[in-house]
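WARN retry 2 of 3 for item q-0093 after timeout on previous attempt; input resubmitted unchanged.
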Amino acid sequence: IIELSNFRRLVLADIPGLIEGASRGKGLGHEFLRHVERTRALLLLVDPSLEAPRRALDVLRRELREHGSRLAELPFAVAVTKQDLLDPVAAETALAEAGAWGEENGAGEVIMISSATNQGLDQLRHLLRRLYEA
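OK item q-0093 returned
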């Protein structure tokens, strides 16, 4: 829960595990995506230590579109995670790749964060507020 001004709160749900094939029932599949349908906006998290940001984001967007609900139409932003695990060049490359993807696909913003070191978390809070208010 993030406290906003005027006694308002932003309630966040961390819903991990959207995998390739979820729209066809793989993994938690439709059950998972039904829970996501109740949201007003999406923050897509990408871990560049696992796979290239462009590939991960393509999979996420495709699964949202193929689910066949309004999910692909929601406002969204991207956060590249685990900045603390990347050397500066790899971090810059991952952010640039995600940023280019975001421009091509309509992401509101693309940022880089590290929950381990708190890097970018203030920027993330402001981003979440803008998504909420949009």
